[in-house]
């Protein structure tokens, strides 16, 4: 049968009767067209088909090959890691930016003040109200609004300052933690913390 239908239906315009060519996109249109004609003519199907060189040579293709099993194992592992990452993903992420111009400033009442910007990323789809606190600094005072409401999927910049009496500072660089919390309900609380540094080089 020389119906030429397989060439007519090919979207890339190749003649599959000349063998597999790099333009082929494996759409299977020629296979369907050929099988339809062969069925009408009561001839066996499969004149054009998806097969391997081994089957064309009269052999039998092995389905469970080492390479195929290896691909399957890697796919399962990657899928498992993806599910694990999604299941354990924290809905809150914070980043602390220290204002270094100037490194510090002295207030009118003799307190040493450092300025920070807290970047709060709400990864959930719902708006959340976050509360900022500080741990690891002796007798500090937060200057600014330690609360922020962030819409779902948005990044919010919260400027905040910390002031301390220099008599309570023992080192020129004091490490402490910024802690951000949000209550989803009465039982579940989102918590994130980040290390930062309080600077007073003239100590």
User: Could you state the CATH homologous superfamily of the largest domain?
Assistant: Immunoglobulins
Order of helices and strands: HHHHEEEEEEEEE
CATH topology of the largest domain: Immunoglobulin-like
Helix content: 10-25%
Q: What quaternary form is this?
A: single chain
Question: In the CATH hierarchy, what is the class of the largest domain?
Answer: Mainly Beta
When the domains are counted, the total is 3
Number of helices: 4
C-alpha geometry: rod-shaped
Query: Roughly how many Å is the radius of gyration?
Result: 34 Å
Brief overview:
The chain is an alpha+beta fold and 203 residues long. Helix content is 21%, strand content 33%.
Structural overview:
With 203 residues, the protein is α+β, with helices and mostly antiparallel strands. It has three domains: 1-50, no CATH class; 61-89; 92-199, Sandwich (Immunoglobulin-like). The protein contains four helices and nine strands, in the order ααααβββββββββ. Strands 1, 2, 3, 5 and 7 form a five-stranded antiparallel beta sheet that branches. The protein is rod-shaped, with a radius of gyration of 34 Å. The termini are far apart. The mean pLDDT is 91.
